[in-house]
Write a structure and sequence with these properties.
383 residues; Rossmann fold; 14 strands
Length: 383
């Protein structure tokens, strides 16, 4: 896509996260760059750092962490505010709720347009399902700030409906978590070679953060229940040590592989090496119930059949495209049966692979980018 605006326009993306591993953030940044804007990502880091890996400037800011998350957020807001003001962008993308207050503050001083990515239902976020005071605080922050943004996007149609109704704002634009279109099938043996996995074993793959509510303990228990299965867990997070203990307790440390986090593009190179991609999201609240996780579409794009939860947003993908099996995350026996179906029913498996190829031709980022650019173009024209 050729640039659509003059090259002196600048955009800043703010996020409490890491652009190297956040696929949605990388895709949005790349689209804005192709739109013709100079893009800077500003996020917290262990030390002040700046680099430009793929034409996108990345600034990491040291923030205080040892005094707790509230101080860390406040410190990040202050530092991100001043860095963004110095850049004087035309567009600020708040890539999560936690960066939105800084974006609104910059808008007040510079007049920049603000695009808010409400990529989760923050008023019902799963990570805070048992911390009601904290959840109410962030819900209040969102309610206060969202009225001042110039555009809102979400990752699902249900989320767009709920956000629009809850805050009495125009319905947000839905930008699905679809990965870039793969131009080739990828290396189907990359995981087997890297980890010396025999051909006779089925490889289950999980990609993403190691958090509760992602079915990770179930996946380890499935590996223990089915002898000819290897589980590759590609990601990192606070749950890793507990998961490693679970693998030891189930005596499957030789068949459960923890790779740690990988940069987004490198992670996608590994995806085709799996036999089944797993996204068993548990019902930890409305945010998870409406989830259409990007990992599900990354598996599909790599022609890897998927094992997902029967939550409405994920199950409708299975029903429409026939790319795998949707199971109850609370029914361990049905999850085991689904994995065995992938292993034992070769015709069913081949059909899922073929359907992944059909779905991958439609469910990719290049289609979502068109909607994103149309929204940004309309926002910038009103500058």
């Amino acid at each position: 896509m050729p640039p659509l605006i003059e090259s002196n326009k600048k955009a800043v993306i703010l996020e409490i996260g890491d652009i190297r591993t956040d696929g949605r953030c990388r895709n949005i940044a790349g689209s804005i760059k192709r739109f013709g804007m100079k893009v800077t990502f500003i996020g917290p880091g262990e030390s002040d750092d700046e680099y430009e890996p793929t034409g996108i400037r990345v600034k990491r800011l040291t923030v205080i962490k040892w005094l707790g998350s509230k101080i860390m957020f406040f410190h990040y807001w202050i530092r991100a505010f001043w860095c963004t003001v110095m850049i004087r962008p035309s567009l600020i993308v708040a890539e999560d709720l936690y960066s939105l207050p800084a974006a609104i503050a910059v808008k007040y001083f510079t007049g920049a347009k603000v695009l808010y990515d409400s990529k989760e239902l923050y008023f019902a976020i799963a990570a805070l399902h048992n911390r009601l005071i904290t959840q109410r605080f962030w819900s209040g922050v969102e309610k206060m700030c969202i009225r001042y943004v110039d555009g809102v996007i979400t990752s699902g149609e249900r989320d767009s409906d709920l956000i629009g109704q809850r805050y009495f704002i125009p319905r947000p634009v839905t930008i699905h978590n679809h990965p870039p279109r793969r131009q080739h099938a990828g290396d189907k043996n990359i995981l087997r070679r890297k980890f010396s996995i025999p051909e006779t074993y089925t490889i289950l793959l999980y990609q993403g953060w190691l958090l509760r509510g992602r079915g990770l303990f179930h996946l380890i228990e499935i590996t223990a229940a089915i002898d000819n299965v290897f589980l590759v867990i590609m990601g990192d997070g606070a749950l890793r040590s507990e998961l490693e203990d679970c693998a030891r307790n189930n005596i499957v440390t030789n068949r459960v592989i923890f790779t740690g986090a990988e940069p987004y593009e490198e992670m996608l190179d590994y995806t085709p090496g799996a036999d089944v991609g797993c996204a068993i999201i548990e019902d930890y609240g409305m945010s998870y119930r409406h989830a259409r996780p990007n990992k599900m579409f990354e598996y599909i794009q790599a022609n890897v059949p998927v094992l997902v939860s029967n939550m409405p947003a994920m199950e409708e993908v299975i029903e429409e495209w026939g790319v795998g099996v949707a199971v109850s995350p609370d029914d361990f026996s049905s999850i085991v049966q689904a994995v065995r179906k992938f292993i034992d029913d070769s015709e069913f498996y081949k059909r899922c692979v073929g359907n992944c190829m059909k779905a991958g031709a439609v469910l990719h980022w290049e289609e979502e980018e068109k909607k994103l650019i149309a929204l940004i173009e309309a926002m910038i024209e009103n500058t």
